[in-house]
Amino acid sequence: MSYIEAIKLRVPQINAVLLSYPDITHLGALPYLVGKCGLNCPIYATVPVYKMGQLFIYDWLSGHNNVEDFSLFNFDDIDVAFEKVQQVKYSQTILLKGDNGLQITPYPAGHMIGGAIWKLTKMGDEEIVYAIDFNHKKERHLNGCTFDGIGRPNLLITDSFNALYKQPSRKIRDELLVTKLLGTVRDGGDVMIVIDTAGRVLEIAHLLDQLWQNSEAGLMTYNLVMLSHVASSVVESAKSQVEWMSDKILRSFEVGRHNPFQFRYVKFCHSLMDLSRVRSPKVVLVSGLDMESGFSRELFYDWCVDTKNTIILTGRSGERTLGSRLIRISEAREKKTFINNFVTLEVKRRIRLEGQDLDEFLIKKKEKEQEAARLRLENVRLKARLENAESSDESDDEDAIAFAGPAPVAKAISLITPSIDTPFPILENPFSFQERCYDIIWKFDHQSKTSFKGGKKAFPMFPFHEEKTKWDDYGEIIRPEEYTIVEPTTLQPKEEEPEPKQEPKDIQPLPIAPIIEEWPTKCVSYKNRFEILCKVEFIDFEGRSDGESIKKILAQIKPKQLIIVHGKTDATLHLKQYCEQNQVVQGKIFTPTLGEVVDATIESHIFQVTLSDQLMSSLIFQTVKEAELSWIDARLLRKKPLVAQSTEEDDKEIVEIENQPEAAAPLSRKSSREAAILDLYGDGTEVVPMDTTESLQQPLRETQPMADDTDEPAAKRAAAVTADVLSLEVLPASNIPPHQAVFVNDPKLSDLKQLLATSGFHAEFSAGVLYVNNIACIRRNEAGRFHVEGCACDDYYRIREIVYAQFAIV
C-alpha cells in the first residue's frame, strides 16, 4: 500500500493506462486505483486481456472474501474499472486523446493469451517500446512474440526476471510432468497442479486433455479437474478467442471446426465441496499461483500431510509467499540437502456464527430492519401525501377541503397502520390535529352558518379525496413497496393424535428456530504448524523467454536507451553489464528502484541552429517516400546575437563536425535562413526543418561544453552558449572527411519481386530468399540489411541497380 500511496499523487498526471497481460501481477491494483483513488483516464487492453482480466480479479477477490473481510475494493469496483477499458487489436494504432500527439500500437507478446508489447510513438518518429515478460517461443496455444513492426526504439523498457535463468527444453518439461502424474495417481495419491486462473492454465489444460485422450498414456481412468471460482467461464471465454491463438489451432478450427478447448476429460469445480464429490485419485488444476489465498492454499492444508500426494508448482512468485517456500523445498530435496519441512502459516477461516454471537447478530439485525422499515414507511407516506396534494382537484367549497383553524374540544383519532415489514403496528402521534383529526359536527355547523338562502342541505360527512391514478408511457406507475411479500412465521405443525397425552408441567415447548436466508459468518485467524510430507516439484510452465534469448533479442533491437525493471538485483546488474560490455545500448541504461522517477527525455540533446545560404546551395537532396535527405559536412559556429556582436575574432568559436555516419535527415528547400534542429545525440547530426520564429523563441534544452572552453568555468560557459546563436557554415573541401554511403529506406522483398517481374526477370521465393533468374539471390539478415549475391554478369548489375534504386543513397 505504500507504493499505491505514492501512485495516488501522480494519478491526475496519468494520460492512459496500458494493460499488457490479464493476470494479477499486471492489473491487480486497477480496481482500487479507479474506485478509491479517482483514476479517470482511458485504459487500453486487447480483447482477451479485457475478458480474462475480469475473471482473474473475480477469482482472486472471491478467494479473499472466503477467508477474510477484504475491504480494499469489491465486485462493483471491478465492473466500474473494466467499463473504462477500450478493447484494441494487434497492430491497431490508437491516437491518445489530447494534443500530445502520442500514438500507441500493441504487438503480440506471447506468454498469455492477448499479451501485448506496446509501442508508443510521438509525432511519428520517436519510439518507446514497453516489452516485459514476453515469450519468443511458439507454444501449443499461442504464437511467439514479434518485433516486426518495431525498429530501433529510442527507449526500450524491459525486465530482467529471467536474466540469470536457463529453461529446460519443452520435451524434457513435458516428460517430467507426465512421469510425476503417473507415479502419483498409480500409487493412489492425488496431484495438485498450482496454476493461475485464466492465463497459463490454458496451456496446461490443453496439454493434459490431449494426454488423457491418448490411450497409451494410461490416464483415462483417473479424474482431471479444474478448480477455481470461474473455471467454466474461463474455458467458455477461451472457446470464443481462437483467432488470438496459434496458427496451428486456427487452421484446425478453420478446416474441421475443431475447438481445442472443447474439453472431453476436464471437469469443472467451483468449490471445495464440489471437489470432494470427485473420486480419487485425481489431478487438480487449482488457481492461486502464490498460494497466499484461494483454493490452492486451502487445499494445501489438507493435502500436505499425506505422503502419497504431490504438489506441482508451475510458476514463481514473490519471495515471502508460500509458493516460493515450496519451490525452495523442492530444490533442496532434489539436491538432497537438509531443509526444514515444517512451516508455520497463518490460517484464515470464515466460520458460521453460533450461540451468543448468533443471538447478538440477530438482535442487531432486527433493530436495523425495524429502523429501515420505519424510515421506509415514513418516506412512503410522505410521498403519498405529496401525490395526493398534486392530484386533488380544486373544490368549489374551500371549507370542505382545507381545515382553517383549531377545532373545539374533540377526540383525536389515531390511525393504527400495520407495516408490511414489521410484525407489529406502529402508532402515530394522536395529538396531530392538523393532519389526521376531523370534527365532523364543527364542520357541519361552520358550513350551515356560511351558506346562502336556497342552498342545498348538507349533511355531516367524512372528508374524502379522490386519488387519481398516475400513468406513464408504459401504463400505471408501480410502487414496489405495495408488492412486498410478507414472510409467514413458520410454526411447528400439530400432530393429530387420537388420544392426546398430558405433558408434564416442567417440560417447556421448544423455541421456534429463526429463518435465515444466508447464515451469518465471522472471520478468524490463527497460526498453525504444518509438516510437508507430500512430494513437491517445480516444473516451469511460465512461458517467458530465458536469459540467453533476452540477450539475443536486445542485441538485435539495439535500443538507444534502456530501462530494466521487474527483476532481482543480481539479475538486473548482470543484464546491465552485458549490454554495456557488448555495446548493445548506445545511450544510458537505467535500473530504477520502486518509486524512482527516470528522466529519459529524448529531446535533451537538441540545439537550434541556422544554415547559411552557401551551405544550403551546396546540399544535394535525395528523395525517399515523402522526405528529402542530404548529407551535411559543416562546421558549427557560435556567435553573439546581432545586437551585441563584437568584431573581435575571439568572439567566434568554431567546432568541426567530423565522421558523422548518420548525418542524413529530412530538410526542405523553403529558405536558406530557415531555422533547424541539430541533434548531437550519439553518433548522428540530424537536421529537421522547423519554423524560424518558433525556433528562435524556444530556449535551448541542454548545453554541452565546447572543446576550446577548458579555461572558462562550466557555469559561465553554459550561460554563454545559451545566449549565443549557433550557425552551420561550409567546411573547406580539404577538411571534409570521407564517409560510408548510407542507404535510407525499408523496402520489402515482395515489392522487389514484383518490380523485378515488370523489368523482365523471373523471381521466386525459397526459404525466405528471393532467387532471380538463377543468377542472383536477395535476402535480408537479422539486422534488416539487404544482401545481393550472384555471378558477375550484365544481369547481375542490372538487378543490383534496381535494388539500389529503391534507396536514397547519401
From TrEMBL:
Annotated Beta-Casp domain residues: 201-326
Main location: nucleus
InterPro entries: Beta_Casp, CPSF2, Cpsf2_C, CPSF2_MBL, Metallo-B-lactamas, RibonucZ/Hydroxyglut_hydro, RMMBL
Location in the cell: Nucleus
GO molecular function: RNA binding
A GO CC term attached to the entry: mRNA cleavage and polyadenylation specificity factor complex
Tagged with keyword Nucleotide-binding: no
The keyword Iron is annotated on this UniProt entry: no
GO biological process, one term: mRNA 3'-end processing by stem-loop binding and cleavage
Coiled coil: 358-392
Keywords: Coiled coil, mRNA processing, Nucleus, RNA-binding
Domain of life: Eukaryota
Pfam family, one: CPSF100_C
Role description: CPSF plays a key role in pre-mRNA 3'-end formation, recognizing the AAUAAA signal sequence and interacting with poly(A)polymerase and other factors to bring about cleavage and poly(A) addition.
Family named by the database record: Belongs to the metallo-beta-lactamase superfamily. RNA-metabolizing metallo-beta-lactamase-like family. CPSF2/YSH1 subfamily.
Subunit relationships: CPSF is a heterotetramer composed of four distinct subunits 160, 100, 70 and 30 kDa.
Protein name: Cleavage and polyadenylation specificity factor subunit 2
Organism listed in the record: Acrobeloides nanus
